[in-house]
Amino acid sequence: MSPSPSDSYRLDEQVGFLLRRAYQRHMAICSERMQGKLTAVQFSTLFRLVEEEGPVSQNALGRMVMMDAPTIKGVVSRLKERGLIESRADPDDKRRYLLSSTEAGRALLDEMLPIMQGVTAETLDPLEPHERAMMVALLRKMS
C-alpha cells in the first residue's frame, strides 16, 4: 500500500490556511465592532488619506494601502458617495484627480480609531504579550 498524500501534508499546519483562518477571525471581530460604519478596507483607505495631510492621487493612495487600481477606484467611489473624501482636478495634470478627506471623514476616523485599536487587541488576545509583539514583527517581515 502506497502512502497517502496526507501522510506528509497537514492542512492545519500550512501557513496559508492558518493565515486565512486568523484573517477571517480578525475580519469577524472588525465587522462586529465597526457596526457597518466603515469596512476594514475603507478604514485603511481613509486613514492613509488623513495621515498624508494633503491631497494625493488615486494611484498613490492605492499604493499606500496595497490595492490595485480597480479596487481602490471602488473604495474611493463609496467614500466619496458618503461625503468622507472629495476629489478635485490636479492643477498640474488635468487628467488626474487629487483626493483629500472631508471634515466628516476626519470626524468618522477619529471615532473609529479607538474601535480599530480594540479590534487589533481582540485579534491578538489569544497571544501572550511578548507573542503579540513577535507576531506583528513577523508579519511585517513577511510583507
Automatic annotation (TrEMBL):
Pfam families: MarR (PF01047). It comes from the Bacteria. Residues 12-143 form the HTH marR-type domain. InterPro entries: HTH_MarR-typ (IPR000835), MarR/SlyA-like (IPR039422), WH-like_DNA-bd_sf (IPR036388), WH_DNA-bd_sf (IPR036390). GO terms for molecular function: DNA-binding transcription factor activity. One of its GO terms (biological process) is response to stress. PANTHER family: TRANSCRIPTIONAL REGULATOR, TRANSCRIPTIONAL REGULATOR, MARR FAMILY. This is MarR family transcriptional regulator. It comes from Marinibacterium profundimaris. The lineage of its organism: Bacteria, Pseudomonadati, Pseudomonadota, Alphaproteobacteria, Rhodobacterales.
